[in-house]
Input
Amino acid sequence: MASRILTFVSCTVYVFLLLTFTIIGFASFIIGSIGTGLYIPTERTFNTFHNNTCQIVDIDYGPCQDSCYFIMWSVEFYVSSQYVFSTIGEKFETDSEMMDKVENYNLLMNRTCFYDETLHVRVQWNQPASSRPYFIMIIVGFSLTGIYLILIGFFYYKRSYEF
Output
């Protein structure tokens, strides 16, 4: 009777560990895959934008149709021995946010901007997001997937030689 109870407990623990490791393994594979899917376009964008100094030559701002506020700056900057004229637009939820931005980025001011080296007229005030968080997702996700595969292989190896 005691051996049956022990067998039942060991089989239950084995199945529980197998299911737990499988859930963790699949979840980590999904995390690694999502990280890869987000890393590639973010890395491309991050590497194609370069900083420059833009001079604000005109500002247009006001309310949007969908209860928001919009600012459009006309800017000029110098790239590869030529002047580039472009616009930067931003949307805000409140009037006070918009007016704060207008005061900080006013007419004839020079501000740091980031332009796309492949299409110089694509300009924005902020640097594009870094791809580092997605790279960490890739490392953690696929590392845990590798550990899962090693553990499953170990369980399979141990279980196949018990019988």
User: Anything to note?
Assistant: The mean pLDDT is 87. The beta strands are 49-63, 69-79, 82-92, 110-116, 123-124. Residues 29 and 141 are 6 Å apart (CA to CA).
